[in-house]
Amino acid sequence: MTEPTIFATVHGGAVGVGAASNVHIEHQYVGFSSPAQATPEPAKGATAKRVTASNIPIRVPQHFLGRDDALAAVDAALKRYEGRVAITALHGLRGVGKTTLAAAYAELHRGDNRATWWIRAQTESTMRADLAALGVRLGWVAADEKEEPALAAVRERLRHEGEGVLLIYDNAIDAASLKRYLPPGGAARVLVTSNAHAWRGVAAPVEIRLWPKQIGADYLTARTGRETERAAAEALSEALGGLPLAHEQAAAYCERLEVSLAEYRKRFDAAPAKLLDATKDAPGEYHDGLTVSKTFALAIDEAAKLHPAAEPLIVHAALLAPEPIPLFLFAEGREKFGEPLAPLLADDGLEEAVAALRVFALVDRETISDERDPTIMTETIRLHRLVREVAAGRCGGDAREQARGRWTEVVADVCPASVYNDSRTWPRMRRLDSHALDLVSGSRAPPSGAEMAASVLLDLLGQYRQRPLAYSLALPLFEHALAIREKALGPEHPDTAASLNNLALLLLEQGDLAGALPLFERAFTIDERALGPEHPETATNLNNLAGVFHRRGDFSGARPLYERALAIREKALGSDHTQTAKSLNNLAALLRDQGDPAGARPLFERALGIYEKVFEHPDSAISLSSLARLLRDQGDLVGARPLFERALGIREKAFGPEHPDTAISLSNLAMTLHVQGDWVAARPLLERAIAIGEKAFGPDHPDVAINVGNLAVVLRDAGRPGEAEPLFLRAITIGEKARGRDHSQPQRYASHYARLLCDAGRATEALPLAEAALAAHERDSGPNHPWTRDSARVTADALDALGRADEAAAVRARYGLDGRA
What we know:
Blueprint lengths: L5 E6 L41 E2 L13 H11 L9 E4 L6 H11 L6 E6 L3 H14 L9 H15 L3 E8 L2 H4 L10 E6 L9 E4 L5 H12 L5 H10 L4 H14 L3 H10 L1 H5 L15 H15 L3 H9 L6 E2 H6 L8 H4 L4 H11 L4 E6 L7 E6 L2 H8 L4 H18 L11 H15 L10 H16 L4 H19 L4 H16 L3 H19 L4 H16 L3 H18 L5 H16 L3 H17 L6 H14 L3 H19 L4 H16 L3 H19 L4 H16 L3 H19 L4 H16 L3 H19 L4 H16 L3 H11 L6
Helix pairs in contact: 3-4, 6-7, 6-8, 7-9, 11-15, 11-16, 12-15, 12-16, 17-18, 17-19, 18-19, 19-20, 20-21, 21-22, 22-23, 23-24, 24-25, 25-26, 25-27, 26-27, 27-28, 28-29, 29-30, 30-31, 31-32, 31-33, 32-33, 33-34, 33-35, 34-35, 35-36
């Protein structure tokens, strides 16, 4: 039995790179020959002689770097025998140097083969001619033999006499076009280079990677003789995306014009299209001397022949940020692209267009796992930065601006509208964020006709950053959205009021009540004038204004606003509407904070009743929790616990076990168990809440700090101060970093920590913490707020412990406290 033919496929960039050496590689150079030209010509029927034959058409460049692993992989594949044809495919971007690699392998192993034959595999006619020429060269067929019988004879002789023959099929289109021209068996070895990626059915793929910047810098410094410009070489290699062909063009330019690598980088940044298409610097021996630009342009044209959507798709993709592009952008936003792209992407058009681009290695297809939830996967395409540059160059002037406008509308449409409140939307937003930001950030005006879409995107981007409290990043986005709407719609338009409202909410979350108030007031004035005093949006403005007064402890200022918002919603939306329930809940919370639990309870219960009419409405968990908190504050733990448990069950069902709102209910239930003295049951609930928050927001988010602080309180009160102390310190650190040292929330943790220190006999450490917390809470919430009174109590206790009884008594008297805690 003869040994089967061994195949290896080199699949990747079609362009070899590097300047030709000044010294010719010492191997026989025959060139491409037709059957009529090949020598020697044996007589018909003559016995073939073992001769050394080679027709490798190119020389290996002097500076052939960074491909040892690829050469070893090819060699291992060609020597592998497992009882069947074995094929290995090396693949990579066009211009990555696959032809050079094949030539280098042939040169490295020229002593191992009696014949090394280069076959131009891009067309059937060239494959046929070159295979027939091999037969003539080896004496297997006569020079005047007709092509078809000559091919049959060559394939048959390769089956039986192929040992010691290396066949290199260069630039094959795909596996299907090559199959009938491969040896049907035997011991010949076959190396294929191809731009197509789809060789997996017959080959184990091995990627030919782009150069890392260190290898690229090695090449640039060696090729130009500029060994002292190492740092500039690394920076330039990075800018060129590691593409060997681009490195050769850059090196040739620098050598020709005697400019430094740093200067080339400067010129490249200023005019990349010009340098990528610099014909004088293209390596003449490789890929017909095409530049990077023409290489990719030709590939785009060829892809368009396979599918008409390939060209407009890659041009549109090139106008986005240089990040992975979710395919759902094209699928869901298809209609907005218009002619010719929209109809071409229908049905399986998108998949086929991407496949056509992949045939020519113009895009990589990549499945990306979400950073926080690896079970969520997104199909994307990625463009090399130079492919992106060439493709984008096909769309200039007004056409590019129109395309940017279409993209702005598409991304605004597919961005989730509930990004602020619903963490389930965040994985999608993570995939869209960089593209959306690239479309609308900066000072440039939005494309004509896409102004409103741009303002929507800016709002959503701001809300996305607001949720993890990236306030400094969110602020200019909200301000930009407001500026667009004021210019496009005028300062009195309701959409302008919406932007004012969003900006005010951001300031409110930062604790800037003074900055938020006039924006809320302006939004209210606009909506009241434009929509009327009884409109639901006017009620929303009133509710938000009331929230500012409520937060700063101005209960008398907040109450009439809450009441008016409630009245509007009852009249406009009905007494059983969920918006009415929200107003009821807010007014009840105010009454509770005013010390009127009797007035608050029926409002909480009425809000809950409204939600319960809507089967398991998620907001019913808010009313359940509010009512439960009221009962807990009144000492009715038996009544509070089942309400907290119901709220947790609703949120777990509505949002899932890993949602931040579920974490809120876990924390509420845990603290009820803590008050009941069951710290053993409370602890795992808080640990679960912390884990949810860390996964959703990261370890340094204030929502995480709340639960870390709550766990510290539980452990402190359980008599485990050693475990509690580092948790208090972590909560304080997170809160101060996110909100500022004087914010009420970190000061709340500081007050609890001061209690731990005071109880541990460390009153000297406790007093300054307690006094700072007391000042912050009184400033933000007034003297009667529970947080203020708690801070006053620990301050007085620390003063007592330090022997300052008169000062302690004065503090207790001022805040109406009883004796020492």
